[in-house]
Write a structure and sequence with these properties.
By secondary structure, this protein is α/β, with parallel strands linked by helices. The chain has nine helices and 13 strands. The N and C termini lie far apart (about 55 Å). Bound molecules: guanosine-5'-triphosphate, magnesium ion and zinc ion.
Length: about 300
């Protein structure tokens, strides 16, 4: 029987079959994707085939259908293994807060890069705008304009004050979407607000660190009543990138991609080469400082230290 993986907790996977039944499934044997070392062979969003073990009331997954795409990361940049956050997505949404907790542009850019690598439309939702003072609004507007100019859709939301929730409902309609972001940004709270029948556990922000407490521990796909599937995920501390080639990194920055064809050398890393069209665009203000800085950070972790420019 065919089904969709809607939750994974280690060795058990909840699969929904085409008639809407939920079956607890295990995996048979080993699944390995060539060249990909992952901690999870089955990811949420996977379409699978399983065999029902009638006596036990469980299923055994024996096949994963080819993934159209996926979002993947390493726990930290030093980890050897990767984790597939979710597969077969129509859109990947990063929930960002500028305070409680603060999301850095480095985190946003790593997320966007990964989505670009698999051609998944990426969207940014800024939550907790109720907490903004004048300074944060200023910062917010700068960041929002920056990403919108590159071509990313941005939304401004407050779950607490129920601001712009309908916009998000429209955005998610009839699509399979992923919510990702740091712990405490309000991913689960926003889903509860979008779908009043759900009662997902949400957590406080710690007073001292102003960070979330990792309340959601497993990714789970939820049904939206106006059509659509939405994946809630555990908060991510660091979005470790899998090993992209340097040449690929610039290609995944849409505003760099535009210029790199004009670089003098076709193996240009856009750092110091003469005749580099990307550097020229950066010097002329066509590529933003924060994006270029994050690009350098990505291709060469310590090229610029975060401290120096934050
Ligand atoms: N002020 C304010 N607080 C919010 C808003 N949205 C969510 N919160 C609060 O932020 C806290 C964290 O929310 P969660 O939904 O648990 O965050 P999460 O992103 O799911 O976190 P993890 O499951 O740990 O990854 C809760 O106390 C929410 O009430 C908002 O728009 N404004
Ligand atoms: Mg949560
Ligand atoms: Zn170049």
């Amino acid at each position: 029987m065919d089904g969709l993986v809607i939750k994974s907790t280690g060795s058990w996977h909840t699969v929904r079959d085409n008639s809407g039944n939920y079956i607890n499934c295990k995996i048979k044997g080993q699944f390995r994707i060539k060249g990909l070392k992952t901690t999870n062979p089955i990811a949420i969003g996977d379409r699978v085939n399983f065999v029902l073990q009638e006596k036990e009331d469980i299923g055994v997954i024996d096949k994963i259908y080819e993934r159209t795409n996926y979002i993947i990361r390493k726990a930290t940049k030093l980890s050897k293994v990767s984790h597939i956050i979710a597969s077969n997505l129509d859109q990947a949404i990063v929930i960002v807060t500028l305070t409680k907790p603060r999301t850095s542009t480095g985190f946003i850019d790593r997320f966007l890069l990964t989505a670009e690598a698999y051609h998944i439309p990426a969207i940014i939702i800024f939550n907790k705008i109720d907490l903004y003072d004048e300074l944060l609004w200023k910062k917010h507007n700068e960041i929002k304009v920056l990403y919108e100019e590159i071509g990313y859709q941005c939304y401004e939301v407050s779950v607490l004050e129920k601001i712009n929730i309908d916009q998000i409902k429209n955005l998610l309609k009839d699509k399979t979407s992923l919510f990702a972001g740091h712990s405490g940004v309000g991913k689960s709270a926003l889903i509860n607000e979008l779908e009043s029948t759900l009662n997902i556990k949400t957590g406080e922000i710690s007073d001292f660190h102003k960070k979330g407490k990792h309340t959601t521990t497993f990714a789970e796909m939820h049904d939206l009543s106006n059509g659509g599937l939405l994946i809630d995920t555990p908060g991510i501390k660091e979005f470790g990138l899998i090993n992209f080639e340097v040449s690929e990194v610039a290609e995944r920055f849409p505003e760099m991609r535009k210029y790199m064809l004009n670089c003098k050398f076709n193996n240009c890393t856009h750092v110091h080469e003469p005749g580099c069209a990307v550097l020229k665009a950066f010097e002329n203000g066509k590529i933003s400082y924060s994006r270029y800085k994050n690009y350098l950070n990505i291709i060469n972790d310590d090229y610029f230290s975060e401290k120096q420019f934050n």
